[in-house]
Amino acid sequence: MIKVSIIIPSFNSAHFIHVAINSVLCNSLMPKYYEIIIINDGSTDNIIEVLRQYDKHKNIKFVSQKNKGLS
After folding, report:
1. What's the mean pLDDT in 55-62?
2. 9 Cβ neighbours under 8 A, 6+ residues apart
3. Which of 8, 27, 34, 40 would be 4's cystine partner, CB 3.0–4.6 Å?
4. How far apart are CA 40 and CA 16, in angstroms?
5. Sign of the torsion angle spanned by Cα atoms 45, 20, 4, 11
6. CA distance linking residue 31 with residue 37, whole number of Å
7. C-alpha distances in angstroms, 11 versus 1, 51, 59?
8. Three-class SS string for the chain?
9. Torsion of CA 49, 53, 4, 45, to 10 degrees
10. Are 16 and 47 in contact, with CB atoms under 8 Å apart?
11. In whole angstroms, what is the distance from residue 11 CA to residue 27 CA?
12. What gap in Å lies between CA 51 and CA 54, rounded to an integer?
């Protein structure tokens, strides 16, 4: 049962994405059931390699798509 979904749109943010993810993971007010969805909007940097460090977190999902512009 998911109570909260955090959606993080991303475009060429490999250097900063870990800050956003860790902010959610370290938040003491987060409910027990949550998910983090990262939308890669056609990044050309190494964001996929950066996100691999979060593979152990089953509540983090990663979606990749061709660049569609502003969300």
Report:
1. 92
2. 39, 41, 71
3. 34
4. 13
5. negative
6. 16
7. 29, 13, 21
8. CCCEEEEEEECCCCCCHHHHHHHHHCCCCCCCCEEEEEEEECCCCCHHHHHHHHCCCCCEEEEEECCCCCC
9. -20
10. no
11. 24
12. 6
Which CB contacts under 8 angstroms, 24+ apart, belong to 21-26? 21/54, 21/60, 25/57
pLDDT bucket at 71, cuts 50 / 70 / 90: low
- Whether 36 contacts 21, CB under 8 Å: yes
